[in-house]
Design brief:
seven-stranded mixed beta sheet, 14% strand, 10 helices, alpha/beta, single chain
Length: 270
């Protein structure tokens, strides 16, 4: 298999990557046949997976515009993935020129490609780090340069927490990040769940098993379990809801049924 210029020498391109599978679902070009094969296996069980990812992306755009409208000029996007059209910094800086954005990911492809995309933009940077180690993120030179933790920050944890197992204490990591943020900060979150999927749970579980097979377990949590991530935050209306129902631009009834898989919400620190 020929290695393209955007793939760092350090990565094993024979092993599927969650970031590259997500890129494939969104119609991107930064993926390999091994990623596409895993994605197609998952789609054998849940053919609407691309619709889920598109709804996730659309919510992210609305939430970033909401944060900018609330006057937030700092965005910390953890688990940012491979940049695609309509990145957080593009949406934020269109609304607020000069907005500061730091992307965080532990996937070398996501980091390398982000560095290439962001070259020359002094208000945006990328950190190679892991959500499970919040202090490494907060102490990174990139965050220290661009994010003033004494002022409100929009913390984006979009489609990332369902890849963190309970044994790795995702609730503790989110609480640690919350405690580092100034009052008025926002938590923007989406999370996968069996609730809302227009399939019997046992069939949806087949797609979940594909992620388990590639050693990236997908943890499907209930709405109540997802709501726990917002402890210490006041929920912004309409609360924790299926993605198309969070401040929609178009009628949710027009959305594909798969778009309602999982939950999205925004919370504000007091």
């Amino acid at each position: 298999m020929e290695r393209p210029a955007w793939a760092p020498r350090s990565i094993d391109i024979s092993v599927p990557s969650v970031s590259r599978i997500y890129d494939y679902y969104l119609g991107g070009s930064h993926n390999f046949e091994v990623d596409r094969e895993a994605a197609r296996r998952a789609m054998d069980f849940m053919p609407g997976l691309p619709k889920v990812m598109q709804a996730n992306r659309a919510f992210l755009h609305r939430a970033v515009r909401f944060a900018a409208g609330e006057g937030l000029t700092q965005f910390l996007d953890i688990g940012s993935g491979i940049p695609t059209f309509g990145n957080v910094h593009e949406v934020a800086q269109a609304a607020l020129p000069g907005a500061h954005v730091v992307y965080v990911d532990h996937d070398p492809v996501a980091v390398a490609h982000s560095q290439a995309v962001l070259a020359g933009n002094e208000d945006v940077d990328v950190v190679a780090a892991d959500l499970r180690k919040p202090q490494e993120i907060l102490a990174s030179p990139e965050v220290q340069r661009l994010i003033d933790l004494n002022r409100p920050v929009a913390l984006l944890l979009v489609a990332i927490l369902h890849f963190v197992e309970d044994a790795d204490d995702p609730y503790g990591a989110v609480a640690e990040l919350r405690d580092a943020l100034a009052p008025g900060s926002l938590l923007v979150l989406t999370h996968a769940s069996y609730e809302g999927i227009p399939l019997p749970p046992e069939r949806a579980e087949g797609a979940v098993d594909v992620y388990k097979d590639i050693r990236n377990p997908l943890i499907m949590r209930s709405r109540d379990e997802i709501a726990r991530f917002f402890e210490g935050y006041d929920m912004v209306e309409p609360g924790l809801v299926p993605m198309p129902r969070w401040r929609p631009d178009t009628a949710p009834e027009d959305e594909d049924p798969y778009a309602f898989s999982g939950f999205a919400g925004v919370g504000r620190t007091a």
